[in-house]
Amino acid sequence: MNHPHAVSDHSDHRVRLAHRTVRPTTAGEARDATRAFLSGLAQAPGPETTDNVVLVVSELVTNALRHAGGITKLRLAAGRTTVQVTVQDPSPARPRPRYPDITGYEGGYGLTLVNFLARFVTVTPTSEGGKKICAAISL
């Protein structure tokens, strides 16, 4: 795993942000990396925000593993007011919401939860033929 790096935000040179890029093979590894990243921030978020970010990471990573052929990159970036979670996968197919299965067997809650917790969610194609899904969560 890479360690967080401080870089300047081009919109305001006084703002510093931290970021970490990893390639987890499981949702558990992604959750662990996220918790470590958040706890290493100069101003670590509170428990509720940490749980929300970890949940978004878990849902996006799980969806990439189940429906998109794996994860090529997980990038976490923190600024003054948001944490951005970006999951990259090799599939060009856009994620599509499904009707939730109330029995819990088939899932279907992931994108609904991500959209509820995030300030915004974007999906963009990558030059390698896959896509990046980015969700920004308020701190």
Task: Describe what this molecule looks like in 3D.
This protein has a 6-stranded antiparallel sheet, covered by helices on one side. The longest helix is centred in the middle third of the chain and has 21 residues, at 47-67. Helix 1 (27-39) packs antiparallel against helix 2 (47-67). Mean pLDDT is 85; it is low at 1-15. The protein is built from 3 helices and 6 strands; from the N terminus they run ββααββαββ. It has 139 residues and is an alpha+beta fold.
Q: What is the element layout, followed by pairings?
A:
Elements: E1 5-9, E2 12-22, H1 27-39, H2 47-67, E3 73-78, E4 82-89, H3 110-117, E5 120-125, E6 131-138
Helix pairs in contact: 1-2, 2-3
**Strand fraction:** 25-35%
Distance between the termini: 24 Å
Number of helices: 3
Total count of strands: 6
Radius of gyration: 15 Å
Percent helix: 25-40%
Low-confidence runs: 1-15
Q: Going across the major beta sheet, what is the strand order?
A: 1-2-3-4-6-5
Summarize the biggest pleated sheet. 6 strands, antiparallel
What string, H for helix and E for strand, traces the elements in order? Answer: EEHHEEHEE
Give the CA-based shape.
globular
Q: Look at the helices and sheets and give the structural class.
A: alpha+beta
Mean pLDDT: 85
